[in-house]
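Pasting as-is:
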Amino acid sequence: MVAESWPTEILFSGFEIGNKIFTGKRLVEQPIEGSPVKDAYALCLAEGDPNGRMSWDLTAVWVAIKGYAPYYEVERGTFRILNDKGENSWTPGEMGKDLRLVEKVPPEEMARLLENCMMYQPVSK
């Protein structure tokens, strides 16, 4: 498996992080036009996510750009894929080669920070 043989540590933004952070609803309600981000969220919200989309990918990108502090703590441990269905496990431990995000900022505040980055009217050049 790729994760187990990856040569460097991996920082995981797990299900428990992204499943509480809902984004997109505020963006869709704005009078922004010509935004592919807004358009994508509008489609998702119309298909059954009225409160916004869970945001695992956005938290991962946020941490890649800004770093995890002061938004998250990290826990060292070992990530393992258990089977072909993608089920996995996390074992905390100082000798583990991986890291996972641990919530520090409330989900609503993190959603606000993420959505603030999306609130731009695209302009033509």
